[in-house]
Structures are given as structure tokens and as C-alpha cells.
């Protein structure tokens, strides 16, 4: 059917009268919006789905949520035939998240599946923890992470507490695609519903403090924290208090849940503007460190005192370098490294993590973008090797395996530990970062995202990738390209010799170029948003703190030229 026929099919049962009325209004008054709402089915991808809320097959609503949930239920019933099945559900602060969460729960219970539903919004990391703690067969989070207020989402987790990966994801996708809207079981059975609250919170808080707290005597570190109107407010203050941090100042304007995220343009701690209020508050409180979390509390932003005493924002690679170095150092001091440990990173993340792993005698393993792949490494190595920590450039970090997704809660506590230890020695977190650069080399990265909305935007992004793939550059900013990794074709090519080797990772639409000077350019369309991302990395040596400013300016100059090249 074309989009008009799809829309007309929503003017009758099984769609309710209110939905029919909204669709009729679009047909009569807004053909452009009608086309965007119905020109395709909202894709249920390898991790779930994310989109704008509203009526239509390309929107999130009672019926598209119901279809996804019914498909998941059908998969679970087949996979665990004859067994008791349970699913944990969490949701964030977005508009309608609580309503949609109950709809999802109803569909599952109507299919005979027991549901553990958080009674209020909770952080995504706690959902991952809950799946394992409650021995569930699956988990669901309703969130659109840091997307604008009109978005929501549906992420599926497996019984290991990690987002689903092949072959499970494809099997679920196939089941979802089979579901007709008329087949959705909406009439839930509340006898199969258990609400989760403070008891599960405390178990999570206890586990986080057990694994991420290393020091004693923490009263003098001054912390400013903002949840950016999101879910971390439910547990992070308690975590910091239980770990011994008493000087925690929560940004007043941003501590209350707000699905409009009214004090920021975007609730994304990757963007400096999102932390601007917190940074101002930090100066008023003379804070040592600033933290911000996104709405579902898997990502974190960090700001620390720079060499000039002013607050400076760390990027994701810098923050993760500090956390990784600290954890590896503690493991080494405690004699826990014996050659059977590894850390995890992703293909678009800084290569500094290879150097750190080498410095401490552990392996660094690289996977596709997304923490589900790092979690998959943990699953495959259980009983044989130990996972220490892992991270990716998009402001996400994971400590240990008790949460198998990005975890800002544990990461913030861990960062406080590093900052407190540094302060005990008269240093700042920025001093610690520079010491890392002295040890393993100076790496600097930036990222730009080019947004291309709608049907035409998707075609334009596809065309851009095809152009890079069929006509790859021989040089980047005057440096010779010596390696081209094409993860869609699973090949790594040396363009100078023609030698080609296979890449042993799942296929993904990503291209990465490497030059003879160590420069790295990665091109990747987003899997959840209408944008294409370009990742830039340069590196050099740095011998002392006095060199830092010049080295930073040189790195930024090179990356500015790379930005001009891709735009």
C-alpha cells in the first residue's frame, strides 16, 4: 500500500475512535504530515525502535508499541516453550512513557508472561541490573535517550541484561513483522504484574557502591550534578551519599523530571550547552567537578578544573581514558591482573585504549558501535576471561558486568573516586588526564553530526556513504590513506598495495580511513536518528604540561580541515 492507503486503513477497527479521528484530520488538513506518518513502518531494528510519538505506522503509539510487544511475546513463548517467562520494564520521564509502559505490560501479561514494572521512572542501567537480579528472560526500556521531547522509544534486553544481538534480534524482528494490528492482545492480566520500587533500588545502589567505590575519606570533594530533568535523580544522590560524598549540589532548575526538558535545547550531555547552567552553578559553589546525565541516565558528561583553574568539559574519550586508567591501576595494585583480563571499546572510539591496555598488560577488544557488542564480549568470555571495563566515545562507560549497558550511575561514582584521589594529592582530574597523555601519547577526537530529516534525508545519507565507498579519498589533509576498513563489506584494504583482509565483525554500514600519520576518519549513519556522523581522531606525543596548549591547537587545526573535507 502507498501512504494514503495505509492511512485509510487506520479509519476502521481495530483502531479506536480517537485514532481514527486524528488520521481523518491529517487526511483533510495536513498531507505532508500524513505522508511522513504513514510512508513506511517504523523500523523495529536490532535494538528496538525509536521515533516521534503520534498516529501512523511511522510513529510511536498504542498500536506500534503493541505490535512490537506482541512480536516479542510471540518470540518468548516459542523460545521458552512450556516455561514460566518474566520480563522487566522500565521507562524514562518522557511524555506518555508511563502510559506506554503499562500498555506494553498489558500485552505481555495478556500473553501469559509475568511482568516486573517499575512503579516510576528509573535509569536504564537499573533495568539492565534488574533483568539479571530477577532472573528475567527479557527486559524493556521505554526511552528515546537524549532525543527531542517529541520522541520516545522501545529497547529490548536479553536475559543477560544486555541489548539483544544476533541471532536473537533477527528472530524477534521476524516475529514483530508477522503481527497484524488486529492480533495484538491489549487486555492485560494484573495478577501477573509486580511493581518494582525502593527494594530493587537499594539492591542496585548497594551493588554500584560495592564495585565503584575504592577510597575512604571523601568529605571534601565538591560535586555539582544535574540530571537534566531525567531519571538519574531517583538513585544517583543516594549512591553518592552511601559512598561517602557529602558535598553534592544538585542544580535546582534541572532536578525535577520534565518531559519537555525545558531548560535545555537538547538533554544531551555530549553537547556543551546542556551543561551550561551546571557550569555556572559550579562556579558559585566553587566545585571541583561537574556531572550531567541524559534522560535515561546511561550517558554522562563531565567537567573539571583545567590548568587555568576554569571548568573544562571532557569529551567521551577523555573521560573514559581517565576512568579506564584508574580501574586498571587499581586492579594492578591489587594483583588482579594475570593475563586473562580484557577491556572493551568500539571501532569509532579513540585508539588510546589500545595503548592503555598494553601499558597494564591486558587485552583491548574492539567491537561495532554500541554497548550491546561490548556486553556480547562479556557473555562469550564468561567463565574463561574477566571483563574489567569498557567504553565508547559517545559519553558512555561500563564498569564490570553487573550492568551490561552504558551506566552513568557507576561511572559518576567512579569519576568521583578518581577526583578525590587526585585532590588528596593536590591535583585535579585534568592533571590526571595529562599524566595519561605523557604515558601513552596524546589523542584528540571530535565528532560532527549532519542531520538529514525525512524520506529525502535518508536517501541523501545513503548517497553520501555510497560516494565515500565507491570513490574513497587517497589522501586526507595531505596525509596518505594507508587503510580503509569497510564494515559493510567486511574488508580492510590497503589501497597502496591492494592487499585486502577480512574483518571478523558483524556487517555494519561504517567506513573508517587511516593515514600514515595516525589520523583516523570514520563515517557512520546513525541507527536511531536521521543523521550521519563523522568521527575524527589525531594523535601525537606530549612530554610535559606546558606543551599541551600548542598540541591541542595543532590537533584542532587538523580536525577543522577534516571537517571541511567531509562537508
UniProtKB/TrEMBL annotation:
Keywords: Isomerase, Magnesium, Metal-binding, Phosphoprotein. Residues 43-179, 203-303, 321-436 form the Alpha-D-phosphohexomutase alpha/beta/alpha domain. InterPro entries: A-D-PHexomutase_a/b/a-I (IPR005844), A-D-PHexomutase_a/b/a-I/II/III (IPR016055), A-D-PHexomutase_a/b/a-II (IPR005845), A-D-PHexomutase_a/b/a-III (IPR005846), A-D-PHexomutase_C_sf (IPR036900), A-D-PHexomutase_CS (IPR016066), Alpha-D-phosphohexomutase_SF (IPR005841). The keyword DNA-binding does not apply. Belongs to the phosphohexose mutase family. This is Phospho-sugar mutase. Its cofactor is Mg(2+). Gene3D superfamilies: Alpha-D-Glucose-1,6-Bisphosphate, subunit A, domain 3 (3.40.120.10), Alpha-D-phosphohexomutase, C-terminal domain (3.30.310.50). Pfam families: PGM_PMM_I, PGM_PMM_II, PGM_PMM_III. PROSITE patterns: PGM_PMM (PS00710). GO terms for molecular function: magnesium ion binding; phosphopentomutase activity.
Amino acid at each position: 500500500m502507498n501512504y494514503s492507503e495505509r492511512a485509510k486503513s487506520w479509519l476502521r477497527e481495530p483502531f479506536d475512535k480517537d485514532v481514527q479521528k486524528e488520521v481523518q484530520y491529517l487526511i483533510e488538513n495536513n498531507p505532508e504530515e500524513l505522508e511522513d506518518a504513514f510512508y513506511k513502518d517504523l523500523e523495529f531494528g536490532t535494538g528496538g525502535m525509536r521515533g516521534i510519538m503520534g498516529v501512523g505506522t511511522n510513529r510511536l503509539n498504542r498500536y506500534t508499541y503493541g505490535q512490537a510487544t506482541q512480536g516479542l511475546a510471540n518470540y518468548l513463548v516459542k523460545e521458552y516453550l512450556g516455561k514460566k517467562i518474566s520480563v522487566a520494564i522500565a521507562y524514562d520521564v518522557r511524555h506518555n512513557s508511563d502510559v506506554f509502559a503499562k500498555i506494553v505490560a498489558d500485552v505481555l501479561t495478556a500473553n501469559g508472561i509475568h511482568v516486573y514494572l517499575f512503579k516510576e521512572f528509573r535509569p536504564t542501567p537499573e533495568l539492565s541490573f534488574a533483568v539479571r537480579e530477577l532472573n528475567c528472560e527479557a527486559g524493556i526500556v521505554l526511552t528515546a535517550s537524549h532525543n527531542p521531547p517529541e520522541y520516545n522509544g522501545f529497547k529490548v534486553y536479553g536475559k543477560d541484561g544486555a541489548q539483544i544481538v544476533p541471532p536473537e534480534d533477527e528472530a524477534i524482528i521476524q516475529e514483530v513483522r508477522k503481527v497484524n494490528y488486529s492480533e495484538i492482545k491489549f487486555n492485560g492480566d494484573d495478577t501477573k504484574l509486580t511493581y518494582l520500587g525502593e527494594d530493587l533500588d537499594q539492591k542496585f545502589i548497594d551493588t554500584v557502591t560495592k564495585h565503584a567505590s575504592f577510597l575512604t575519606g571523601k568529605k571534601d570533594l565538591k560535586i555539582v550534578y544535574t540530571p537534566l530533568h531525567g531519571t538519574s535523580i531517583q538513585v544517583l544522590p543516594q549512591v553518592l551519599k552511601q559512598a561517602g560524598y557529602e558535598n553534592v549540589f544538585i542544580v535546582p532548575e534541572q532536578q525535577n523530571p520534565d518531559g519537555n526538558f525545558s531548560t535545555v535545547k537538547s538533554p544531551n550531555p555530549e553537547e556543551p550547552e546542556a551543561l551550561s547552567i551546571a557550569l555556572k552553578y559550579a562556579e558559585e559553589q566553587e566545585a571541583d567537578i561537574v556531572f550531567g546525565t541524559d534522560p535515561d541516565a546511561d550517558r554522562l558528561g563531565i567537567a573539571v578544573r583545567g590548568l587555568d583553574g576554569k571548568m573544562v568539559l571532557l569529551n567521551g574519550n577523555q573521560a573514559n581514558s581517565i576512568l579506564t586508567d584508574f580501574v586498571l591501576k587499581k586492579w594492578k595494585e591489587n594483583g588482579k591482573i594475570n593475563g586473562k583480563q580484557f577491556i572493551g571499546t568500539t571501532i569509532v572510539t579513540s585508539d588510546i585504549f589500545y595503548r592503555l591496555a598494553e601499558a597494564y598488560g591486558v587485552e583491548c577488544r574492539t567491537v561495532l558501535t554500541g554497548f550491546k557488542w561490548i556486553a556480547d564480549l562479556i557473555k562469550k568470555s564468561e567463565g574463561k576471561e574477566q571483563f574489567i571495563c569498557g567504553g565508547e566515545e559517545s559519553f558512555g562507560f561500563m564498569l564490570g558486568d553487573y550492568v551490561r549497558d552504558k551506566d552513568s550511575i557507576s561511572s559518576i561514582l567512579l569519576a568521583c573516586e578518581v577526583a578525590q584521589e587526585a585532590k588528596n594529592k593536590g591535583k585535579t582530574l585534568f592533571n590526571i588526564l595529562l599524566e595519561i597523555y605523557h604515558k601513552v601519547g596524546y589523542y584528540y577526537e571530535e565528532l560532527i553530526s549532519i542531520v538529514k530529516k525525512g524520506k529525502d534525508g535518508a536517501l541523501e545519507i545513503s548517497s553520501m556513504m555510497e560516494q565515500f565507498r565507491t570513490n574513497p579519498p587517497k589522501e586526507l589533509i595531505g596525509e596518505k590513506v594507508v587503510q580503509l576498513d569497510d564494515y559493510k563489506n567486511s574488508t580492510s584494504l590497503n589501497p597502496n598495495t591492494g592487499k585486502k583482509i577480512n574483518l571478523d565483525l558483524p556487517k555494519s554500514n561504517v567506513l573508517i580511513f587511516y593515514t600514515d600519520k595516525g589520523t583516523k576518519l570514520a563515517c557512520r549513519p546513525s541507527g536511531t536518528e536521521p543523521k550521519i556522523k563523522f568521527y575524527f581522531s589525531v594523535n601525537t606525543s606530549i612530554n610535559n604540561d606546558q606543551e599541551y596548549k600548542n598540541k591541542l591547537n595543532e590537533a584542532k587545526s587538523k580536525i577543522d580541515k577534516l571537517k571541511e573535507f567531509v562537508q
